[in-house]
Amino acid sequence: MKVLILNGHQPYEFGKGELNAAFANKAREFFEARGDEVRLTKVSDGYDVDEEVENHSWADLVFMQFPVNWMGVPWSFKKYMDEVYTAGMDGRLTVGDGRTPEAPKANYGMGGTLAGTKYMISTTLNAPAESLDDPSEPFFEGMSLDDLLRPVHLNAKFFAMEPLPTFGAFDVMKNAEVEKDFARFDAHLKTTFAAAQAA
Fold it and tell me: Is the pTM of this model over 0.85?
């Protein structure tokens, strides 16, 4: 399998990015141990737009690692998406927005060229797991992690990529349980890719 890992962390004074880098490196080690070919882009270090478009076309799996910042991806990762995905609308990642002159109101978002490519989101959050999936919690009001990440999922769907189960490491700033999170992450990868291989 050909794996593109995107480390979308943006370093800040309060968060240097060590945890997201550790998850990205653990993912690389996992895939390389399987014999997969891996490319890793650390977005905040800079990138070549056309090379990243090619990386997406090349990959069987796009693995996105990032912290949730203000209910979305960090600004540098959003900039990456804006630049790389817009460049890929020339037919390399999608044929326009999926609509045709014959049906100008139908099939918006269905022009992607990456059918068969999988993607996985792995994210870190300050929010505790208990704040999600619980209608009695007043902020998220029952939302799941995937509900919160819906724009990222829709971006991937725009290019016809198919989702694999999302991983979340919660409460990482105030009540971090890093070793437990690493163990859950390892189990998540093993379970997901054993199931994918069996399918």
Answer: yes
